[in-house]
Amino acid sequence: MEDYFKSGEICKKAREYGITLIKEKAKLLDIAEKIENKIMELGGECAFPVDVSLNHIAAHDTPKFNDDRILNKGDVVKLDIGVHVNGKVSDTAITVEVGTNKYERLTKASEEALDNAMKIIKPGVKLREIGSEIQKTIQKYGFSPIINLSGHGVDEYEVHSKPIIPNCDNNDSTELKENMVIAIEPFATDGEGKVTEGKPSGIYELINEKNTRNNNARKILSFIKEKYKTLPFCERWIIKEFGVGAKLSLLLLERKGIIKQFNVLPEIKKGQVSQAERTVIVGKGVIN
C-alpha cells in the first residue's frame, strides 16, 4: 500500500497547486503542463493527461500541443488529475469557478456528495448505497447527478477498473471489500444528467499490441508500451517526444485498432457541470 499512499500525497499536492493556476486569461495548456511537471518534480508520474474541462464539458478535455484557449471570467473549470508511483494510481478532481460565484451551489453539490459518500465507505457497504447517497445529496441542491458517469476502482497501471461506483442508486448490491482502492467521483449538473460523446480528445490508450509495418509508428508504439503501458497518454506528449509528424503515426495506430482515442464528454443539454473526486482505500481511508 505504500506506493498508493505516496501517489495520493503527490496527487493532493498537485491538486492544490493546480487550484492556484486557475485564473482569468490563464492558458489551458500552461495549466496542464505545469501540473504535469509538478507531479514529476514531486517524484510521481502522470497516470493520465491532466484534464481541464470547462462549463458543459464534464471530462476528457486535455489541451492539444498548440492549444491557445484561455480561461474567461465565469468559466466553471473541472481539474482532473491522476498520479502513479510504480503503477499504483491515485485520481482526484476539483471544480473552480473563475472570478465569479454564480455556480457556487453547483460546486457545493458535487463536493458535499463526495463528502457524504466517503463517510459511509467501509467493507460491506453496497455500491447502490454509495450511489444513493450521491444522488440524494445532489438532488437536495436542486441539481441532477450525471448518471452515465461514475466513480471506479483503480489498480496497478489501470485508472478505471472494477467496481463501478455509481452516482445514483443503480440497484447494484455488490459489497465493498477491505483494501479495495476506489475513486469516488460525483458529477452534478443543471442539465439533463447525462453526457454524450463529443469531439476526439487527443487522449489515447493502448488496447491491442499488434505489430505495424510502418517504421515511425513502430517506434512510437514501442515508446508507448514502455512509457505508459496500459495507462492513458495524449497526443501532445507524443509530439513533444517525436515531433508534429507523430500525428500521422497515431492516426495509423488508431485505424489499425492498436490504440483507442477517447472523446470529450459534454453534458447532453449543455448544462453546467461540477465534479469532485478522491481516491479511497476501503478500510484505510482517503489517500488524496
Your description of this structure?
The protein is an alpha+beta fold. It has two domains: about 1-195 and about 265-285, Creatine Amidinohydrolase (Alpha-Beta Complex), CATH 3.90.230; about 200-265, Orthogonal Bundle (Arc Repressor Mutant, subunit A). Helices cover about 35% and strands about 30% of the residues. The chain contains seven helices and 16 strands. The chain has helices at about 1-20, 30-40, 105-120, 125-140, 215-225, 235-240, 245-255; strands at about 45-55, 55-60, 75-85, 90-95, 145, 150-155, 160-165, 180-185, 185-190, 200-205, 235, 260-265, 265, 275, 280, 285. The strands form five sheets. A five-stranded antiparallel β-sheet has the order 7-6-8-15-16. The chain has a three-stranded antiparallel β-sheet with strand order 1-3-4. Strand 6 and strand 7 form a beta hairpin. Helix 1 (about 1-20) runs antiparallel to helix 2 and helix 5 (about 215-225) packs across helix 7 (about 245-255). It is globular, with a radius of gyration of 18 Å. The chain starts with a helix and ends with a strand.
